[in-house]
Specification:
about 40% helix, two-stranded antiparallel ribbon
C-alpha cells in the first residue's frame, strides 16, 4: 500500500492568514487548460482574497453587467489563471462577444457564459476567441448538446442541491472526456460526493473579507483582555 507523500511547507510570517481551499478538492482529477492543470476555482471578485488564496485559479463571475475595468483589476492582481464572466443573460449578443474577445486579449484563460446564453451567441463567440468557453448549466432542462455543439468546451455545473445528481447525469451521458467544473458545496463530504459523481474541478466560495475580519477583530479583543 502506497504511503501518503510528505509535502514540505514553507510559510511567511506576514502571510499566515491565507484563504485555503478544502483539501478534499485535491482528490479531483483536474482539467488541463492551456497547459495548466486546474483542480480548484475560487469563486470571488474580491481582489484581497484573490491575492491571499491558494486556489489554482479564479472564476470571476458576478451578478452585474460585465465591465472590462473589473476584469483588468482582477487579472492584474491574480497570481493564477482567471476565468472571466462575460454575460449571456442581460448582457448578450455582440456585446458579450466583444467582452469575451477583450478578456482574451487582456490575458484571461477562459470565459464563462451564463445559463441563458443562446447557442448562436456561443457559436459566434467561439469563432472570435481562442480561449475556452465555459458554459454554465443549472438544471437537467439545459440544452447540453446545443451548448457543446455551438463551441463550449467545458460545462460549469451549478445546480444547487441537485448539483451532484446533475454532474452524474452529464458524466454518464458524455463519458470521461468532457471537462466538468462544479460547485462542491460547503463540506468536505459534499465536495467528495461531487468529485465521485464525475466533476474534474471544483468551484469554492470563500468567506467574505468581512467574515474573516470579524474573526481577526475578536482575536484582537481577546488579546487586549489578557493584558
Amino acid at each position: 500500500m502506497d504511503k501518503e507523500k510528505y509535502i514540505p511547507e514553507v510559510k511567511s510570517k506576514l502571510r499566515t492568514r491565507m484563504v485555503e481551499v478544502p483539501s478534499a478538492i485535491y482528490r479531483a482529477s483536474g482539467i488541463k487548460i492551456l497547459g495548466t492543470r486546474i483542480k480548484s476555482l475560487l469563486f470571488t471578485t474580491d481582489v484581497a482574497i484573490i491575492k491571499n488564496s491558494n486556489a489554482h485559479s479564479i472564476i470571476a463571475v458576478y451578478p452585474f453587467t460585465p465591465q472590462l475595468s473589473i476584469t483588468q483589476a482582477i487579472l492584474e492582481v491574480a497570481p493564477v489563471p482567471v476565468f472571466v464572466g462575460v454575460g449571456g443573460g442581460l448582457t448578450t449578443g455582440k456585446r458579450a462577444i466583444s467582452i469575451a474577445l477583450q478578456a482574451e486579449l487582456m490575458g484571461a484563460y477562459g470565459v464563462v457564459v451564463n445559463a441563458p446564453t443562446a447557442n448562436d451567441v456561443i457559436a459566434k463567440m467561439s469563432e472570435r476567441i481562442d480561449i475556452p468557453i465555459i458554459a454554465t448549466v443549472v438544471s437537467e432542462c439545459d440544452d447540453f448538446d446545443g451548448k457543446l455543439k455551438a463551441g463550449a468546451s467545458i460545462l460549469n455545473v451549478s445546480g444547487g442541491p441537485k448539483t451532484t445528481a446533475l454532474v452524474k447525469m452529464i458524466r454518464e451521458k458524455y463519458g470521461k472526456e468532457l471537462p466538468i467544473i462544479a460547485t462542491g458545496g460547503p463540506t468536505e463530504e459534499s465536495i467528495l460526493a461531487t468529485i465521485e459523481a464525475g466533476a474534474n474541478a471544483i468551484t469554492y466560495t470563500p468567506p467574505t473579507s468581512a467574515e474573516i475580519f470579524s474573526g481577526v477583530m475578536e482575536k484582537y479583543r481577546d488579546d487586549m483582555r489578557k493584558k
